[in-house]
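INPUT
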Amino acid sequence: MSHDKSSPDFLYHHFYDVNQQYETSKLGMWAFILTEVLTFGGLFVAYTIYRAWNPEMFFNANLLLDVNKGLINTIVLIASSLTMALAIWAIQLNKRKLSLLMLFLTFVCALGFLGIKYLEYEHKFHLGQLPGEYYSYMGPEVVQEIHDQEKINHYIETNNIFFDKETNRLYTMNNPHIFFGIYFIMTGLHGLHVAIGMGLIAWLMVLTARGKLHARYYTHMEAVGIFWHLVDLIWIFLFPLFYLIG
Amino acid sequence: MDRLTEYLFPKQVSSFAHDIDNLFFFIFYASVVLFLIVVIGMMYLAIKYRFKKGDEVRLTSSLDHNTFLEVLFFVIPLILVTITFVWGIRSYLNMVIVPDDAIEIKVTGQSWFWTFDYPEGGSTLNELVVPVETPIKIVLSSTDVLHSFYIPVMRAKMDVLPNRYNVMWFDANQAGEYEIFCTEYCGTGHSNMNAKVIVMPQKMYEVWLAEAGSADDDLPLEELGAKLYSKKACNTCHTLDGTALVGPSYLQTSQMWGQERVFDDGSSAIIDENYVRSSILEPQIQIVAGYQGVMPTYQGLLNDRELDALIAFLKTLKEDSQI
Amino acid sequence: MGDTNQNYLTHPKGIMSWLLTLDHKRIGLMYLFGGLFFFFVGGLLALGMRAELAAPGNDFVSNDTYNSMYTLHGAIMIFLFIIPAIPGALGNILLPLMLGAKDVAFPRLNLFSFYLYSIGAIFFIYVLLSGGVDTGWTFYTPYSTTSNTNVMSTTMGIFIIGFSSILTGLNFIATVHKMRTPGLTWYKLPLFVWALYGTSLVQITATPVIAITMVLLMLERLLGIGIFDPAMGGDPVLFQHFFWFYSHPAVYIMILPAFGIISEIIPVHSRKKVWGYKFIAYSTLSIAFIGFLVWGHHMFTSGQSVLSQIVFSFITYFVGIPTGVKIFSWMLTMYKGQVSFTPPMLYALSFLFLFTIGGLTGIFLGAVALDIHLHDTYFVVAHFHYVMQGGTIVAFLGGLHHWWPKSFGTMYNQTIANIAAIGVFIAFNGTFFPQFLLGLRGMPRRYATYDPQFVEVHSYSTFWSGILGISIFIGVMNLLWSLRKSNKLDPGTNPWGALTMEWTHTSSPPHPHNFEEEPVLTHGPYDYDKVIVKPTFKK
Amino acid sequence: MSEEHHITPLKTYLVVATALFFLTAVTVWASYIDLGSFNIVLALLIAGTKAGVVATFFMHLLWDDKKNATIFVGSLMFLSIFIIITLTDTEFRGAVNPEIKDPINKRAALYSTLPLTDDHGYPLDKENNHHEGDKDHH
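OUTPUT
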């Protein structure tokens, strides 16, 4: 048997009609989102358990992260989500050029996100705030790192740090390398998703520019959009969990 | 039933062993009944309604459910598992709540032997000595990987974790010598990581405690060495017959006495008393080529006389020695 | 009917048409032969282990070799055979046919997941040839972070195969939801489809967690991140939570499709409407769900909190009840039917026998106090072999015999198949039933050498394991032997008189596009009270 | 057919994005107020709201087949199962036998060259009985 001869060229042979194909792809994409949520979920579990075990260490280690960079990245990602949504909106109305522009903006935002992430990582690598056994950050720089003088005072007052004058070393907390381990894995995996998302958006731009996507057929863009919003959604949780431990 | 218990289970030595075996038999008989219902029912139906030669292929009954039966299948197992669950938890709480008057013995698992530290200060290797009819609290920890401390006759088992304590307890009701197994996989020597629990009458235990460590003082060095060889678990990794296990055979070391031995970093040393001594106390420094350096240090586990005894024993070994 | 000679096996031709095929039936066949190959490898490892255990000492292999053998036996059987075999092979071949669809929802993804499986398999072959891995398939830390064997390659292999499993599950879910032929409502679906659907749900929800666990394990080895390794401040019990959050549901990934196969075989070969259709369907889903809540019963001696012990023991029993009712439903399906003792039916009956033992012995292990004695002993080994081999593999062999004429258009020698089926049944019991006794007496698992008191039972078990190996080998060779050219059946053959769509609406072997005309649903899958289809054998 | 797909008005997107920016500001502001353990609850509530808004409007769940929303909610449910049941272990260890509550060494072997410290970073080799009272600060 063969499908309706009048069916458009973007309809795969094993579907009855365009709508079935669109809905199937979307369902598949959502099932994929479920697997993504659970992949990150494992890391959220590790985070929860270790934070519950070491609340003070998490608090202290969180002070070493740069809230401003995290905040900028949050804003950048939300903006990119908006432009991604608008790209779909534009293609639904067959405004291809507008859609292309919005995809481009999304791509730029993603690039910006990774750039800021790079600056953050670079700084931490430099200081030795690394995961696991590579963690070597025990120098007194910690005091210079925190910009909020009130926090420094609070920090020392509550005896969470111990400064040993003989060795000129600062013992901050128990096992901070675990915090940084979880931080790097979660933000690293998230960053990997951003990079993959950029690849997908670039691919969408090519498809849109070639006119393959239009108001009747934009499944690819819808699927990538869902993926991209998921990336945003995960960051929405990572931001307060790592940067804003009150 | 007692004979069946004896056939199926090891002896019941702890106070809760009897209860656990009874729980087993409760589930066992319930299972046998359910199993027979399924198997006999299945065979009866399959044979009664079999398609015989010459039968006509025909439409069959449209019967496809019976609410009463389905509810019954639901309720009967529910009752059985509820009893099992409550029984299992009640017995478990009994096994996990340690009596206040328990003697506390510290057990350390290490690849691949057990160390037992007694409250009075003594310590033994691969031989746990406990008094009869006294609750014993076992506090477990490991120095390397996971182990699991299992005494079948006590029906007691608990994983041994590195950097974390675990607790179990038992009270033995019969004197005797019973097996201890490691049941959490821990590497090459896992299946050799056995020990004994020796349950003694109270009086004997007190005598043993007082004598522990001093009893061997008057043995000749070589005999003491032979005793330590198995008591301190050297035999887990070093044979006397020349075959290589985890570590080199004592026989080989003995035969090479005075000769040079090559290590995995390319260096070498003459085999003499000092070499053997440092190999026991600091085994990680010189690792014989071809072996993995997995031996733990015996620093603090052997006194000077015991070290001398092991060296003396090693030097006596010949091709035909039978120990 | 159009050109009756055109079927998916011969059209199109050429090796590339197989390697790049998007046809679910061909992908299914590739999974089938991949799975059978690893079944063979895993089986050889098992026989090697039994040979070593015939006598107490190190008579056959060293401790290290034994440890590597049991690890690879477990990992290969689970990750390369049981998990992919039924969904990947039988599921792929049959799911679209049973739904009246032309293909699965995402054919390219389907091929991609087969290639992921192959890449994972290459990792395993590398591990096998390069000296093995000795951590046990459970990879408990900190042994797995310190072992100097091939842990990295193995975890990488599992990570990749995990994605293959996820993508297959995702594909099947979309297929079941969206690709059913018009008129095929949920309650008209064959029960095998329900089973695959439940399996797929478990696959996509549980497998991501093993993927991230394997990543964390690799990072623990590379960087010492300190989540699982106590030397770095981590918690080994937490690793066990992570591991079993996947690996307990994975048991249902393995057993649910077997339930599906049995739910097909018994009504067809009893020519009788299935008993309790809705119950079997719903219990599949409820088992899949409850399976996520009980992982801690693998950790009753790990030192988790007492509260967890109680919670896990309690929920564990709720998996047992729906499973029990299923067994009764299958049994009662035969009531007032016409039962033929064909090879698939013999496998199904032996499944009922063996799986009942496997299920009931699970009750012993769910009772915390008793589990403390039995944990990590041969009782557990026997229990899960009764479930996995006596359950899943026996059902798989039954399913293979049931759908062999459909997949290849040939019929095997039924007498030999029956003898092999009975041989598997007897030898299986001979091998594994004594192991319950070993466990009760306190014989720990994963021992290369053991106390001489256990030798009698061990050598008995070893003897029967040889017969078991031979029986399975004969069974599978009998199937493969039927593939010779002279053995072709008429494309219209329906040897069992089955009513599901893959038998009534397409030829054997099926057309490359599954159905020559759009399938029109005329009856339900088990309407043996309304429709007669006579079994036909035509050469 | 694709023509039937719901097209969300531009205004909705802009309103949603504004709400997201606003909530981001709120969450940063809230982190500077000391609410004790309620800080984390509030942060997660805000993050949850943001996530809900993204899923509902940007990801089009509001207008989609309800199956998709079910899958998404399902993924969160399975994640909660994982977290909650694991917490029944990690939070309740030592309830019967207090020995098993904490690790023996709180500091990883990584820091073995440093003196051991207690929860508060004090080296254990110094006499520090006074900080028993310090716990009241927290």
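end of record. Strands of chain A lie at 162-164, 169-171.
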